[in-house]
Write a structure and sequence with these properties.
Layout: E1 4-7, H1 10-20, E2 29-33, H2 43-56, E3 61-64, H3 70-79, E4 85-90, E5 109-113, H4 116-126, E6 129-132, H5 137-152, E7 160-163, H6 166-177, E8 188-191, H7 194-210
Parallel strand pairs: 1-5, 2-3, 2-6, 3-4, 4-5, 6-7, 7-8
Helix pairs in contact: 2-3
Amino acid sequence: MTQQQFFYPQSQHILQQLIDQRNPAKIQRVAFFGGADIEENEPVFREAYQAARLIAQQKKVIINGGGTGVMLAATKGAQSVKGQTIAISFRPNDMPQYSEETPENQADIRLEMDNYMNRMGGLIHLADLFIIFKGGTGTLSEWATTWLLAYLRLGHHQPLILYGSFWHEVIAVLDKHFLIGQLEHRVYTIVTQLEELMPTLQRLETEVARRH
């Protein structure tokens, strides 16, 4: 597919059209969050690639932030099986530590927003489910925001899959030092290997469909 690229403010209108097409009774679009600094020879990159490939084979759209690392792995994995991809990026003028932009991430549809918050908001509102891999502070912000929104919308929420065995330790630390309730644990599933991914996705699809 030839890449379609839209710049702000047109990208905002295209994004809203895509959001309006969401069917809350189905998981059709899956967002990948994870570190931009993950190299292609690292296990996390390969696992994100394979995860996107498996999910795209089920005719689901793969969404990511349009950058390097896990985002690039998601696009490449989906496109390896001719799956559809959407990237939501932004190009800041005053953020010297931001270095995610890469011409390699050639998603089928690319929406360039005007700032980081609109970019993250677009990813969150567009997706039906989130898969969160190892990453840095950007990934932390995405995880915390999606986790909170899922808890607040419990019963109508977009589920989270936390990919990697390290999440058990992360959650244990949060339980020890933060005020995390039992309901907040109901909105995510920890998956530690690829073999668990598709059965988990199928279970979540069934749960989402039963709400409607």
